[in-house]
């Protein structure tokens, strides 16, 4: 059972750690407020749990088809571009000013994380692959628990580290980071659309 849990932990970190839109959003929000970064991460984790429940109740057929994945890709790309625009728009504002403007909006950040993850077709594909792997193990539920544990650790520890080191980031550097973050998110958005258009 411990082995199954550790396998899940490894899979969870493998899914959570790589640089992607959700991690970029968590990092940007954690620079303002630690709670904001965690709220984005919890939203993303909730979206993961949503797809896990869909798979658990045998509703995979309704989401794992070309039409649904295509719509998710296009909607996800639009949402990514919107997030990229917001980050780029605030690139020249001081971190202290942004902190004042964004304080107390945890639900909004939760929704951002939830929507960004839910609208990604890669999330569906990933969890379907994981469910296939976990079913082959002796304790599939333990594997899933290990994954969720790893994701929870990542979305709480990573933004904490970012927030605690924000004093090392000047406003000029923050502006550059914001521009790079916006470009990366825009790149992911375009990649999703290109992949969907030319996959056949």
Describe the structure.
- The chain is mainly α and 200 residues long.
- The chain has one domain.
- The protein contains 10 helices and no strands.
- It has helices at residues 2-16, 21-30, 34-56, 60-63, 66-89, 95-102, 106-118, 121-136, 140-164, 171-198.
- Helix 2 packs antiparallel against helix 7 (106-118) and helix 8 (121-136) packs across helix 9 (140-164).
- The longest helix has 28 residues, at 171-198.
- The N and C termini lie far apart (42 Å).
- The mean pLDDT is 86.
- This is Lysine transporter LysE.
- Pfam families: LysE.
- It comes from Candidatus Marinarcus aquaticus.
- It is a multi-pass membrane protein.
- InterPro entries: LeuE-type (IPR001123).
Percent range for helical residues? over 70%
Radius of gyration: 17 Å
Gross morphology: globular
Structural class: mainly alpha
Please report the total strand number as a whole number.
0
Contiguous uncertain segments of 5+ residues: none
Number of domains: 1
Largest sheet features: none
The chain-level mean pLDDT equals 86
**Number of helices, counting only DSSP H or I runs of 4 residues or more:** 10
List keywords for this structure.
200 residues, mainly alpha, 10 helices, 0% strand, globular, transmembrane helix, membrane, LeuE-type, cell membrane, transmembrane
Tell me briefly what this model is.
With 200 residues, this protein is mostly helical. It has helices at 2-16, 21-30, 34-56, 60-63, 66-89, 95-102, 106-118, 121-136, 140-164, 171-198.
Give the topology, please.
Blueprint (H helix, E strand, L loop, with lengths): L1 H15 L4 H10 L3 H23 L3 H4 L2 H24 L5 H8 L3 H13 L2 H16 L3 H25 L6 H28 L2
Helix pairs in contact: 1-9, 2-3, 2-7, 2-9, 2-10, 3-7, 3-8, 3-9, 5-7, 5-10, 8-9
